[in-house]
Specification:
The chain is α/β, with parallel strands linked by helices. The chain is 32% helix and 19% strand.
Length: 250
Amino acid sequence: MLRDIGCEAIPGEIVAILGPNGAGKTTLLRCLNASLRSYTGTVMLGEQDILASSRREIAQSMAYVPQHIESQRVTAFDAILLGRRPWIGWDMRRDDILKVQAVIDQLNLTDLALRHIDAMSGGELQKVAIARALVQEPRVLLLDEPTSSLDLKNQHEIMRFIRSVVRAHHLTALMTMHDLNLALHYADKFVLLKEGCVFCAGNEEVITPELIEAVYGIPVTIEQWCGRQVVVPLSNEEPEFISRPCTTGG
């Protein structure tokens, strides 16, 4: 259960929501877009009161990519096109089709466009889900572990694309993450949750070894490598190796 939550994000920045399993990261995202409403307080997007807005109005302002994507027997193009639903009236417009194609081109998803998403890998499906969120043209992107199913190359490819979209379109992105080093590489601000509360929030300066140990319960050191901060876990326990004599056949 979340309590005493207070944080602020501005356009043009990426906010990483960090914390151990069960800290409330996904719950916080679902509260922000009013998927969960059983709480007191306010969620403001500029002058828009999210809790007083309709589902359509919220969908025109916020796009949510869940951690687990439901696979269906539809093509990637049609799945991405669903992101235009909050803006579509009685019929699909040519402009909607062009917006979908533009996002497909930007994400290099042309080879996937006509494939059925129930035949895709987890990483491919995640890319389609992010494309659907982007074609929604939101002011805020809410992403629940957007790189969890991706390999190393695709993790950075997706994060670079999200960062470029956020900067170019002056969006705000809030995303839950487990990879501290990936967060340090791409995020502008950090919100660390522990047991349903905001333990600390701020820019890169708040990410210290003491803070990480307090939140995650593991000692770390933070080193500078190629001009970047890198979190390195420490352990006082050395693995035990059993020494066995080497034998060779005669």
